[in-house]
Amino acid sequence: MIENIDSLKELLTQPRKITITAHQRPDGDAMGSTLALSEYLSQFGHEIKVILPTEYPFYFEWMPGAKDAWVYPEHKEAADEWIKSSDLICCLDFNTLSRIEPMDAIVKEAEKPILLLDHHLQPDTFEWMLHDVKACSTCELVHRFINLFDAQAKITEECAQCIYTGILTDTGGFSNGATNKAAFDIVADLMDRGLDILYVQQGLNQNKTESRLRFLGNALLNEMVVNHELGIAFVVVNRKDAKKYNLQTGDTEGLVNYPLSIKGIEMSVLIKEEKSITKLSFRSKGDINVNEFARVHFEGGGHKNAAGGKSIYPPKWLINKITELVKKSKN
Ligand code: 5GP
Ligand code: MN
To answer: Which of 202, 280, 274, 217 is nearest to 54 (CA)?
Structure first.
């Protein structure tokens, strides 16, 4: 439930100017939730712009409304103007404004009321919040928002595709710990509204390049380090391979999950060298809390079993450091 929902409803009784945004390096849930909310709210005559802090992978280009979204650095001037003159800023699929760098500065400066829809742990406080860590995805919360907001909820086929994308990707195809009953209930509802599952599958998963698949093969064959004793595995993506396989935004998505398929591996870490930092992705099974691990050691966070972080150190150093930390925590 949203506290003060009446004041939000009041605000939205008239056509307004609205900014909708999601976290950097948007994933399926970030894309799905922003585009679904935009599609839904546009029925009421609002002027809406989806503005994403960084570019999104090409395999989201098919999503309804994706091509109209602005990538902040490419539209900085117009985006700054839009944000400054917005009546409402909707923040989706993130819990703190640093997650929308480099857009966070203008959002803070604009001092506009914010609506947060999110399922990450430990959120900051905003005017209106629909926050639930038990939600399988932010798309679940968009669906809930639509139903809270308007009993006559009109979910178009396009909106359904977007909501489904977020639920499908954040639950790892209805298989990871985030998967809940609502995921299935909502998808059943979306099917009633014309959702074409094969169309989404084609756009998301049958749309990638040969070099990405070869990159994946190489990463698992040559760049995976497995420590059976500690139940931890690493996959490294170095700059050399990124160049060799012409890696594009989003091409490493999902790679971190593979080591968890090994019996006895309880925690997996993807270590990706970027221009000036090393980006880390963590996944775990059961009670191993990678949100805490990423927060304490790598300026990151996320969910209990899926989190991210960053470091200034190179992959080799990080493998040693993380191995040491895990060893210590086991003793
Ligand atoms: P991924 O490993 O797929 O990039 O992210 C896993 C989860 O952790 C996602 O829910 C993502 O939003 C969150 N996450 C990733 N990187 C960071 C980070 O640097 N800080 C925080 N707070 N969350 C992150
Ligand atoms: Mn999400």
So the answer is: 274
Looking at the fold, whether 67 and 196 belong to one and the same domain comes out as yes
* 22 DSSP 8-state letter: E
Ligand 1: residue whose CA is nearest its atom 13: 302
Q: What does the DSSP 8-state code read for residue 223?
A: S
- Is the C-beta atom of 308 inside 6 A of ligand 1? yes
Q: Verify whether ligand 1 is closer than 6 Å to residue 279 (CB atom).
A: no
Contacts of 305 (CB under 8 A, 6+ apart): 176, 177, 178, 283, 284, 285, 286, 288, 290
For ligand 1, the distance from its centroid to the CA atom of residue 24, given in whole angstroms, is: 9
Using the 3D structure, point to which of 189, 205, 221 is the last residue of a domain. 205
Q: Per-residue pLDDT tens for 219-266?
A: 999 999 999 999 999 999 999 999 999 999 999 999 999 999 999 999
Are 111 and 78 in a shared domain? yes
For the record, the structure tokens of 10 come out as: 């009041």
Considering the entire predicted model, what is its pTM?
0.95
3-state secondary structure of 88: strand
Q: How many domains in the chain?
A: 2
Tell which atom from ligand 1 comes closest to the C-alpha of 291. Answer: 8
Ligand 1 touching residue 26 (CB < 6 A) = no
Q: Is the CB of residue 70 less than 8 Å from the CB of residue 54?
A: no
**How many residues are recorded in the chain?**
331
